Amino acid sequence: MIRYLAKRFGYYAALLLVAVFLAYALSASALGPRSYFEAKQPRPSAASVDRQLTALNLNDHTPVVERFGTWAKDLVLHGDLGRTIHDTSVNDDFGRRVWVSLRLLLIGSVLGMVLGVAGGAWSAVRQYKISDRALTLFSFVLLSTPVFLLALLLKNGAIAAKDATGQEVIPFTGYETPGLAGGIGAHLADWSLHLLLPTLSLALGGLALYSRYQRGTMLDVLGSDYLRTAEAKGLTRNQALIKHGLRTAIIPMSTMFAYSFLGIFTGAAFTETIFGWHGMGEWFIQAINEQDVNSVVAVNLFAAVVVLASGFLADVLTAALDPRVRT
Amino acid sequence: MTTLITEATLPAAEAPAPGGRLRLVLSRLTAAKGVLVGGTIVLLLFLLAFGGPFITHWDYATPDYSALRQPPSGTHWFGTNGLGQDVFAQTVRGLQKSLIIGLLVALFSTVVASLVGACAGYFGGWIDRGLTFLVDLLLVFPSFLIITIISPKLKGAGWIAFVVLLAAFNWMITARVIRSMTRSLREREFVRAAQFMGVHPLRIIVRHILPNVASFLITDATVAVGGAVMSETALSYFGFGVRAPDVSLGTLLAAGTDQAPVFPWLFYFAAGLLVLFVLAINLIGDGLRDALDPTTEAARPARTSRSSK
Amino acid sequence: MITDLIESRDLLEVKELAVDFGAAPAVRGVDLRLKRGETLGIVGESGSGKSVTALAVLGLLPGSASVRGSVRLEGRELVGLPNRELAKIRGNKIAMVFQDPLSAFTPVYRIGDQIVEALRIHQSLDRAAARKRAAELLDLVGIPEPERALDNFPHEFSGGMRQRAMIAMAIANDPDILLADEPTTALDVTIQAQVLDVLRKAQRETGAALVLVSHDLGVIAGMADRVAVMYAGRVVETAGVDELFARPRHPYTLGLIGAVPRLDTGGGPLVPIPGNPAALGDLPPGCPFAARCPLVQDRCRTAEPPLAGTDGHLAACVRADELAERRPAPSEVYPVPTVPPPAVSVPREEREQVLRVTGLTKTFPVLKGTVFKRRVGDVYAVDGVELDIRHGETLGLVGESGSGKSTTLFELLRLGRPESGRIELLGQDTAGLDRAGAHKLRADIQIVFQDPMASLDPRLPIGDVIAEPLLAQHAPRELIARRVPELLRQVGLEPAHAERYPHQFSGGQRQRISIARALAVQPRLLVLDEPVSALDVSVQAGVLNLLQQLKAELGLAYLFVSHDLSVIRHLSDRVSVMYLGRTVESGSVEAVFEQPRHPYTRALLSAVPLPDPPAERARTRVLLAGDPPSPTERQTGCRFRTRCQVYAALDADRRGRCEQQAPPLAQAAPGRDHAAACHYPEA
Ligand SMILES: Nc1ncnc2c1ncn2[C@@H]1O[C@H](COP(=O)(O)OP(=O)(O)O)[C@@H](O)[C@H]1O
Ligand code: SF4
Ligand code: SF4
Ligand SMILES: [Mg+2]
Known about the structure:
heterotrimer, B: MetI-like fold, C: Rossmann fold, eight-stranded mixed sheet, 24 strands, about 35% helix
């Protein structure tokens, strides 16, 4: 089992390496930091632009492979992600923003998973009953609403609430109230309130997706021989469903989580931008508009690591849940 | 001749007329209410998108200076925006563009996915390993990131380049499913039989493999239309997709967002049509899945647009 | 009252049990009674309602089923009992053993934990005590090292072991009744014999009554005290086991008995029951068997005959008394096809050699790794196979699952250079063939697969299916247009069916389509991989008759693979027995079946149940121990050693030979067509 996981890990490392190089090559050639400097007022001389670009390891006259080499060496030796186009440290930005994003990503996806699995299993057991149909319709509507639109709708709702009551009932910008006085309790409450809408816009999509999927795997299990065996032993239907049914039906979900993380990550980028969170997603969009190659690569690296980590986690989870893949 | 006891007389229950399969599918389709409802909605939306420009005399770009930010009325059905442009004409035009993009992306990506998946699954070996690595590699990055990086470069090439870009990052998951379906089909006896008869591999793929994954492909392509429309709107919303002077649902939403609380018609008509369309597509996809593949009704996950987005 | 007293002796009493799924009936009024300690066998074709009846007794049917009638356990009504009450009875008073032991265990829990759970539901035991008891149970059903086996997962067990464990779990709470639904259908004969033995033992230990559901008349003959025959959702005949086999009173029972090929008699055509099992959805009024019954009369179609009769022998047929009186043989009642004399009558030695295989091997790598696969071992799937087929002859290839039969076939059909050994097809060494030569030779060797559902592309009309080999051989269009209807007629279907799709045919018909496809290019050798094992006996008989007839008419040679020795005996001229990838015995059918030389062949033959209760009881059995060893290690010496009953009885001196030298396939006597690979063969 350890061997199996070690092998998966090796594969992911190889993927990561190739992927990061491709991301670097793509960003470095598609973006034009030179034009960013040339557009400055007053227009700097060609030599000075060249000097600045070289200092930032962004000079397009240096071959991409060489620039990548410099970047990778700094990263491996010093853990240094390079300089932004404003000549500040990418690491600083990264360090600040990564927690903002992770908070949203983790809470949003875990909440979506738990609710989705529970809802899907429940829906399957009550197949074709009113509650099943209601949940199905609800998921379909949610699945047909792009994340950014869902976020916008939630935000508009909050704005409407504010306009109606004259005060901000549910905050819809940023992740904390600036300059809030009070103890840790007040801060925690403030954070949770700020988390509410962005998390919802991520979790609701997850809930819809996972519940559909879980409903399918659970329906499979409902007709299985071993569930019948469990009942033939003398377990009641509900005991058998939970102990033997749900336990088995949850296995394929782990792969599903890994796949859908891509979508959630993208969704998080939109959500951050819409709710004014200074996270990785917002940074990415801003960096592209500023032709900031190193920042773009940093976000890509983050995305690749998160996606692969979730893939690896899914493998671990599958191995833990399913004795058949362990041998 | 000997008195061979034949089984020639099929019992009535087992002998639907030739072409029974098609009829079976059709009867199941009509039985699935989702397909009927979804199909009607999609049809109406297409009518609206392509017939709409002919029933209004307003052009989507020409401003009416006498009506700035007017709410819906008899003259301007969906109202006007800050420039005095007719929102109905704009929405219809945007819907048209979004639908075309969605259809094309789904078509391209399904073709690529089925070819790559079937070849990887059927031939195995190095072809398989190479293609699988490629798929995994493309899956490591949210395609959104790549598209946003590349799309500023394509400014001049217009929305067709955008379609190609979307399709290029939208086929991987389908290809994976096709690959694993092909792998199990390859072990099936009818494929083995064809191999032993000396049928050419490419012919086996075309004649035996692809028709047997067709029901999945059709369903998947349907759902992919919805997914592509969602991707399109999201990217256009952030300025990385369709650009002015073209309009799509995404650009309309982007333009209307800030004014939504005060001038809701600038936002909610486009938003509503978007959700309605994708919902209808998902309903059709779900119904198709049941109708085409009754045996695995529950086995296959509800692959809805979200997972391809 | 007296009837009350008699009734109260019944442990289980099923009356008028009927089950519908929506509008479609599945069981239509079943009456059964079971006494303490007795074994009731239920036989019938698939879909006749055996499983549904068994599940209905326990209340285990899905919610879509509606159950009517009555099921009384010691006088207590079970139908309509709330789930909580039923749960107390399930696994405690009535326990169940299912058909497929792989899917019947929850894959994610250890065997031990699942048995412990069964124990602790009904008994107040602590974990340790329950575990100890579970180990005792595993020991009882003959699982080696029970303490360790407790910690295995289901997928780590072989099929036979799983079924033993399933029985152990079923008897955990000393039930009064064991319901076993086709408990050995998924297993090989030697393993089936073991499991049936375990069932008998379990019954002895617990004193439970056994309800044994099976489609195999042989199994029923050997196990049951009384038998109920089911057709179209009803019991059509019930009697004591000897009485039923000796004097069947229902034409259906008579037909079933006539349709089974038997190990103890060879040759001759079988009695196929015409038509297909009745579709329960729209039964015409009257006797449900009327459409297939050779004795049908007008009165049969008016009302469904009730189950009636004297001295415990009941039958649901208006002509039961006649049959009871006349006692005809199956062939007197059912029309039997006459098989024409063989097309070739020259002695064997003078006939043309069609296939000759010597020393064939095939190894598969055991791969590990996701991206860069590494070889971590080998499976010796085929390791020394010898075959010899001449014109107009049928060679039966027998062996347990996993013994390498299908791999052998695929190696032949590949028409390439074998890993080692030599394949000669129609005098041509396949190792020396170029692409064009191989392609041409493909027309001479064709295959029919086991699973009639999987072997036809569901998306092609059968006309195209049959035309495929012709297309592959680039046959002209006119020829194809002429051949397809001809072939359909030849296998007993109608040319008009060419437009239909495979799912519109029954299993037997689909197998006929497969045969037509194989015959399309007029092959010389037809390879048949378990062609009838997925079919019901009554349908199987028809297909076997067809094969015999085609062989006689067309002068084909068959390589017929089967795990069913009765079928082999019935159809073949010569037979070849495989064990762990190796040919261990071969020769003419009479020689091998009447004087088996290899201990394995003897064990195999004795494991096949006979559909004849007195004969079955009188037999002495050679029970093989354990499962075949894994083919991933190549042993020195004889590979049957681990299970060989002869070896077990040898002294250490003589054992040495078995341990060190691999026995070669040696002829019994010069010039005799009978060879065995054993150092100490019989006779
Ligand atoms: N869950 C179910 N839903 C609908 N029909 C069923 C179900 N289970 C069994 N049947 C039908 O009931 C009939 C009897 O089946 P079964 O008892 O399994 O037969 P047997 O065990 O004799 O092969 C068949 O026609 C089968 O299709
Ligand atoms: S009642 Fe008539 S049709 Fe039915 S089995 Fe008896 S003779 Fe045949
Ligand atoms: S060679 Fe020895 S071990 Fe092998 S079958 Fe013969 S007696 Fe048994
Ligand atoms: Mg059954």
